[in-house]
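Re: the pair you flagged

First of the two:
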Amino acid sequence: MASRWDDLPLYAPECDLAKAVCGSNSKQWPSLVPVLEREGLPKIDPLMGGRYVPAVKAWFDALNGLGTKPEAVDGREDFSRWGKRRRA
């Protein structure tokens, strides 16, 4: 199990993030996640099966006064409408 940010994969599973964020208190992570997600913690990517670690780290950095929080994903893109002309 990874315990440092630098040791985590790009998309980390919850058990690894829990250890990196909470250290020896990693068992608290499941109860913290719902609260943190309401505040903007990046969610688990369903395709990759983990949270995008650079975004999670940036979010925690901003939470503690280092930079700004990354914007939340606004939803799935619909590229099928690209190139179609709007009619007046």
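Second of the two:
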Amino acid sequence: MSYWTQLSPAQLGKYADYLSRLLFARSGMDVYLPEIDDKGIDFVIRTKKGTFFEIQCKARRQLNYSFIEKTKFPISPARYLCLLLFLNREKENPEIYLIPSTVWLTPNALFVDRKYEGKKSHPEWGLQFSKKNMPLLKPFLVTSLIQEGDGHSLKPI
């Protein structure tokens, strides 16, 4: 059984944040941390070409619904969600996905837009996980988007 199974949700989130920052640094990109995390940005990366990307990091151990309030994750070509799925208790490392915020411009079964107009809940961008929807996530697997040691760019999606 993997060590991360014993971590609390807060510890797992912090671990996922560190692991994803290490991934970008290892690929040759610069990683910058905000002094205050009040805008939904966990860290910023800069490619060797000088392009900046804002990254929000989330970790999940189960395929259940997950969301980000729209106010904390505005759609922008420079805003990405780094999603770490810790699903296999036998594996040490999670599956890591890098999802551009722009995918929510065309919602589907996985990437959902919850407007909640006239309701108490705040509008949110959702991830409706299910075994059926998982193939929709595959194109965002981080190994297909970042070339290790390259550090020049994220591959276009």
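The domain at 3-144 is CATH 3.40.1350.10 (Trna Endonuclease; Chain: A, domain 1).

-B.
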